[in-house]
Structure formats: structure tokens, C-alpha cells
Sequence to fold (611 residues):
Amino acid sequence: MQQINLLLASLPDGILLGFVYGVAAMGLTLIWGVMNVINLSHGPIIALGMFGSYLAFIKLGINPYLALFLIAAAGLLLGIVIYMVAVNRVINAPHLSSLLATFSVNMIIIGLGTAAFTTSPYNVDFSMGQIQIGSTSLLGTRLIAALVAILVTGSLYIFLYRTRPGKYIRAVANNRSAAELMGIPSTQILALSFGLGTMLAAIAGGLIATFFPFSILSGGGYELKSFVIGVLGGLGNPVGALAGGLVLGVLESIIPAFMEASWVPVIEFGLFIVILLVKPSGLFGAKK
Amino acid sequence: MKNWQKHTGLILPILALVGMVLWPTISGSVAARESIFTILKAIALASSLNILLGYTGYVSFGHIVYYGFGGYIGFFLLTAQGWPLWSAMLAGGVSSALLAFLLGKAILRLRGAYFALATIGVNEAMRNLVTKLDFIGGPTGLTLNFKTYLAYGGAAKALEMSFYVLALIVLAAILLSHFVRISKFGLGLLAIRENEDAAEVMGVNAPDAKTWAYVLSAIIPGIVGVLFFFKNGNVEPNDAFPLHSSIELLVMVMLGGQGTVLGPILGAFAYQGMRGFLVTNAFFKDIQLSVSGAILLMIVLFFPSGAIGWLRQRLPALRRILA
Fold:
């Protein structure tokens, strides 16, 4: 009975968190789906999103949710720059090259970030109250974060399926040379897709900052989670990423009811390897 | 006398190793010995990774798992079971090889980025699992009883001995790397790297060859792990399975030139040297990581075959030596 109560208390939290994880993973999986590049600078960009939220709220006094627009714009721009500088030259090279190129971006960001913010933890002290439903209480910040995550997913979907640049992205993902022959400027489209991927990571970071303390190094943990979610949902499938995020959020909230919380990463990564082996296209299908 | 020509590629690696061992021996400087120890350890690990990465073309982001796993098993036997260092090192190497065999059977079916992701998963799962196992100390790890060093002539003698033992391991790693490269088995690996499907059509038994390459690349890290933790006196999950060290190894192999015997040696030497310089330099100290990252980016973008690969393209006459 005690376990059931614990479950009821933590499950909604896990679901809300899962949406945010989903947005972070969507950024990773979008880049993979369009250009078959695993973005190893994903984690530090999530961390930059967190610091964006910190700087906007603590230093400039902007509401963290309004600041998300700034963070998104900065994330988009940063992604385009990273693509042009580091990824474009190795886009057709073997995987090792693009993995190492994005990893060197990771090192550059972490190095500069450490110099600017040190590695000590920061905190965005922002409260939206909480809602009581029976014995469960939901934090306002997490509720809004989940809503924002759903909104972002919806907009991404509309962008990819209803607008011209979105259709270009899907065409390039499908077959780059054919898209090029149809007159689509594929390099620009790839840069835009990379920008969108980092934008999603930065937004996720900005949302996470409103309820967890963070440091410049905290992105790494969310990057690993994004890998797990991306594989769970099928790499290259943005909607699958959201579903995978929910699965992970739920797992994280129900495992502690049965065993010690520190088993969570063991189970997460075990599950990750099993899914890679048994069904590498993920539970919800990889990109077609 | 045709046969010795196959082995000219060994000249430079062995000269480099002898030079690195002689320097602290002659100068008698303990500080020099410690910094060479770090470089030798990097060479042993990078050369083993090269068998998988450079010859076979499989990118492992979690190669350090074999260093940590073998190191943990050997260290446990050393401290809790009172095994001598030699048998513990052997046990470390064998258990890493065994783990690589079992894991390899499973994850080597994955290709490209999926394999890379799986190796990250293996490393993280192992690190978190070890943190949960109380008989090997959980999150705090194991500590060596200081008395253990007495059997090797006291702590100072034991540290000095570790250096020469490591030099022997590096020699073994270089020989392994060389003999795999010139063997028929190695040719099969190179064929897999170029095109796995074509290699299979030409009669290379790809699943077996990949598994053995993986096993061979795991033995040396397991042995080095035991020796390093013996010298260090303790082992902790975060020291044994640092994800970033795996990636540093990749950088070293890339820097020197993947798929060559000399490349990982040069890469490990250059990378450790550069890091030592940046960390101690007043101007670069704070942004050390950024500078390393920028250098790595330059190499990946403009010299993807690494220093040795670049030299081999430029100076075909020296190819026999720069193997």
C-alpha cells in the first residue's frame, strides 16, 4: 500500500518530466534523422540553455518562459554556426569524423563555459506554486514545462509537415541528392535542421533549469538520457522521441518505489543495450 | 633475407619506447618517470583501441570499460584474496578478454553509430552497476593495504617497478599491434574496415574476425588497469570507468593516425604532452579544454588520416618505416 501511495505521488511527476526529456531527445533524433550525425555537443547545448535561463531571469529579470524565445533563437543560431564550422566538411565522411567533430565542439563549449561559470552548481529560483490532486501535488513549473514541451512538439510537427522549409528538411532527410536535383539548397537545409536540433536541446535546458539545479557539466547526463530515449523511440523519429521520453520519465518515477533509486541508471542503460540489440529501430520505429 | 623487411615498421615504435624508458632511468628524476608513466599508459590503451578502431573500423566510445573491469577484478583479487600482482594482472587481462568476447558476440552485430552508442551504454551500465556492488566497495571502491607493497620491496620500489612493468606491457601492445597488422587476420580486419559486406563475399568470416579483434583490443587495457590501480593504491567507479578517457583515447589515435602502429604512440605522446603544457600554462589553464577541442576539430576537418597518415601520403619512400 505504501508503494502504491509512493507511485501515485511520483508517477505524475515522472510523466511531466518525461515530456521535457522528450524535447531534448527530439533535438538529437532530428539531427540523426536528417543527416545521420550523432551530435555529441548535445549535452553542453542543453547546459547552455540552462545558463540562458539563469542569465535572463537572475541578471536581466526576464520571466523564464519569455526567455525561452530568446534561448530558442540563440540555440538556432548557435546550431547553424556549429554546422557550418564543424559538421559541413565531414557530413559525408565516416561516422568517426562527425562524432569527433561534434565532440570537439562539446570540448570547446565546456572549456569556455567552465572558464565563465566555473563548475559549481547554479539555481534558477522560480516558483509557480503547486496544484493538489488528492494526495499528489504537482509543481507548477513542471506542469508548465510539460505544456511547453507539448506545444514545441506540435509546432515542430506543423513546421515539418505543413511549411515549405519543413518539407525541404524531410526531402533532404529522405534523399539528399534527389532533393538537390529538385533545386533544394541542401547545405542550407542541413544547417537549418542542425539549428533546429540544437534549438530543441536549448529549450529543454531552459525548461529543466526552472526545477533542477545545474552546472555547466550537467548537460552530459541529459545527453546520455537523450541517447537512451532516442534509441527507445527509434532514432530519427521525433514523435517516437516524445514517447520514449515519457517511457523514461515513467521508469524513473516507478523504479524507486521497488528498489533503491540508484538502480535507475543501471536499468536505463541495460534497457538501452537490450533495445539496441533486439530492436535497433526502437519501440516506435526509426525513420523510414 | 626478405623476411625482416616485413618488420621495419617496428623500428621507430621500439626506439621511441626505449628512449622513453631510458630518459627517467638515466636522469633518475621521479617527476620525469611519473609523466612518462602517464604517457606509456596512454600508449598501451591507444594501441589496443587502434586494433578495433584503426584496423577494423569500429568506433568504440567505451573502450575504457575493459580497463576498469579488468582493473577491478585484478584489484579485488589482489586486496581481498591476497593474490600476487602477476596473477592478478593476468586475471585482469583474461577477464577483460572474456567480457569482450561475450559482449562482442552481441554488440558487434551493430554497425556504425549504433555500435558507438552501444559502447557508451555498456560503459555507463557497468559504472553504475559497480557502484551498486557492495563486496567491491560500492561507490567508494577498494583500497590497497599499504603492507602489500612490502612484498615488492616497499612503496617506493613498487612504484619504480610498476614503471618497468608498464614498459613491458607497452612493448607487448606494440608487438601485438604490429603482428595483427601484418597477419592474414589483420588483412581481413582491414577489409572489414573498407567494406564489411564485400569482405564477407571475399571469404572473410566477419563476425569471428570482429570478435577476435575486439577480444585482442581488450586484453591489454585489463592488464594495465590492474597495474595502474596497484600503483595508485585504490580504485573507485569514477576512476575506473571515465567516459571522457575513452574519448581522449579516440583523439590520440586520430591525432597520430588510425590504422598504423606508430600513430597511436605518436598521438598519445603528443596529446599528453599538449595537455601537460596547456594545464600548466598560465594563459591556457582555464580554457585548456577549449584549446584541445579546437585542435581536435582542426585535425578532424583537415587531417583526417592523422600525422602518420599524412606523412605516409607525402613521403611514399618512408612507408616501410612509418607503418
The domain at 2-122+136-278 of chain A is CATH 1.10.3470 (ABC transporter involved in vitamin B12 uptake, BtuC). The longest strand of chain A covers residues 130-133. Chain A has a mean pLDDT of 88.
